[in-house]
Amino acid sequence: MGSRASTLLREEEIEEIKKETGFSHSQITRLYSRFTSLDKGENGTLSREDFQRIPELAINPLGDRIINAFFPEGEDQVNFRGFMRTLAHFRPIEDNEKSKNPTASEPLNSRTNKLLFAFRLYDLDRDDKISRDELLQVLRMMVGVNISDEQLGSIADRTIQEADTNGDNSISFNEFIKVLEKVDVEQKMSIRFLH
Amino acid sequence: MAWFTFPADNLLCRCLGISITVWFTLLFVFIIMPAVLGVSFGIRSFYMRTLLKIFEWATLRMELGAKEKNQELYKPLRSEPEFEMADIFYFCRRGVESIVDDEVTKRFSAQELKSWNLLTRSNYNFRHISLRLTVLWGLGILIRYGVLLPLRVTLAVTGICLLLVLTTLVAFLPNAELRSYLSEKVHLMCYRICVRALTAIITYHNRYMIFSNGGICVANHTTPIDVIILANDGCYSLVGQVHGGLMGMVQRAMVKSSSHIWFERSEVKDRHLVAKRLGDHVADKTKQPILVFPEGTCINNTSVMMFKKGSFEIGCTVYPVAIKYDPRFGDAFWNSSKFGMVSYLLRMMSSWAIVCSVWYLPPMNREEGEDAVQFANRVKAAIAAQGGLVDLIWDGGLKRAKVKDVFKEEQQKLYSKVLVGRLSVH
């Protein structure tokens, strides 16, 4: 509490984050105060326990997978830049951005990047393929004990059958995109950030 | 040509007239008269039966026709739950939304103020904005720490000393009635001094609801000062753990002249013992009402969290009280993970003032067929509504403990129902 919040976030950092993620100045400061309020250890980074302290996230069946998405491979702490970079995936796509600067690299909240975020939730071992086992595990997380093993197995089999086009019995990222081409990803994977 | 149209006009009018008359006669005879007399001709049920026959015939024709042409009339039912890969988006979005903002964790830290009350502790973005503002702030510090704080500390020390001395003296009196009368006066006097020590400006509403004996008073909990604020206006028996040091001395002194319920740390776990002692106290009509804070922990005064059902199981009348602090003058919330008791009191005594409103609500009793949890929720809703606070079902214990797995299992069950339920939509 107190004046810690703004003094630790310098203007240059805010500018850099703005360029990288597309959030506005006030959104970044607001999310920074949220970051610091979650950071109980006050060391400028969040650990997995800090996320799990949010009750609404702890009861989410995929809570652990979502928390995992914030942490880069093999690391246990995420700093504010990493936090913002992950949250940027959920920024709504604005119409005026679509036409601006086609030569620049793809923004973090593009449709492809949103799909990549979801793909990574399924892909437990990060080998860029969703195997039958991985799909089963994620399904089990979502339904708990309410559906039998056989039913779950047949759901997984049918899903892979419908999506798999090259016959390797797993779903690659391109096959994933194809399956979801009719889904309104932009709306389903965006949240409103208050200004 | 007036005379050309006249006969045709006449004919038209006459036709219209006749049809309207016939229409109204039929209406009157077949619908209105029976309705008035309460008699039924059975026209509506005949109508319904005819319609059903027509529908059956139509369905039969359609099915025959579809069979001839070999078409599917209805989509086939699938016997398995339908899963779509897009389902994950829902959980994903909910999860990230709760990371960005959630209802619970923000109740355990002080609330943000829209305007600035010249205390750096309540402003997140304190920067040097202008010279005038900084000078004003500096002046504020001078006044608060130089004048108000010493004054308040003196008052507090006087109040506590008087409490200790006078209650011990009163305890020596032989006459029980005189003792209880005097102890009331002593307690009220000392609490009034303590209230002035904090510069607490309290507005009591509905004071006619105050009661004297045999009941439990429940209130929402923001700070240990709640006790002083409520005890300033009436005499309560307090319930709490036995502390050591200064608090312990005060507790022992208070017990000498009036009855309070202090538990040893080990006894707190034993719910039956707790309930029995509370029940015994309430049953004794000569004893003062008990003051309980069912949330079990301090919440930041923007919401009321789950009430523990212990005090609602005893079965006596409950008198709810709502306390709302005005955050503009000083934030009264005690964030026990950040500040210890002494630093908290110092902060309190160096704020401008503690302004709060206390509402006494009408007494509530447990109704037929209501269990303790439902009763507790009803009381909680009444307190939240009066104080303008958000009524949450989350447990205040989440401040320190993890949420129970049972809630996650609820979410999983709901999703499974959606999966299986999809086949009925198709």
UniProtKB/TrEMBL annotation, chain A:
It is found in: Cell membrane; Cytoplasm; Nucleus. Keywords: Calcium, Cell membrane, Cytoplasm, Lipoprotein, Membrane, Metal-binding, Myristate, Nucleus, Phosphoprotein, Protein transport, Repeat, Transport. InterPro entries: Calcineurin_B_homologous, EF-hand-dom_pair, EF_Hand_1_Ca_BS, EF_hand_dom. GO terms for biological process: protein transport. SUPFAM superfamilies: EF-hand (SSF47473). CDD domains: EFh. Residues 26-61, 110-145, 151-186 form the EF-hand domain. GO terms for molecular function: calcium ion binding. Pfam families: EF-hand_7 (PF13499). The keyword Repeat applies. The keyword Nucleotide-binding does not apply. GO terms for cellular component: cytoplasm; nucleus; plasma membrane. Belongs to the calcineurin regulatory subunit family. CHP subfamily. This is EF-hand domain-containing protein.
From TrEMBL, chain B:
CDD domains: LPLAT_LPCAT1-like. It is found in: Membrane. One of its GO terms (cellular component) is membrane. Pathway: Phospholipid metabolism; Lipid metabolism. One of its GO terms (biological process) is phospholipid biosynthetic process. Pfam families: Acyltransferase. Residues 215-326 form the Phospholipid/glycerol acyltransferase domain. Its main location: membrane. Keywords: Acyltransferase, Lipid biosynthesis, Lipid metabolism, Membrane, Phospholipid biosynthesis, Phospholipid metabolism, Transferase, Transmembrane, Transmembrane helix. It comes from the Eukaryota. InterPro entries: LPCAT1-like (IPR045252), Plipid/glycerol_acylTrfase (IPR002123). The chain crosses the membrane at residues 20-43, 129-147, 153-173. GO terms for molecular function: glycerol-3-phosphate O-acyltransferase activity. Signal peptide: none annotated. Belongs to the 1-acyl-sn-glycerol-3-phosphate acyltransferase family. This is Phospholipid/glycerol acyltransferase domain-containing protein. The lineage of its organism: Eukaryota, Metazoa, Chordata, Craniata, Vertebrata.
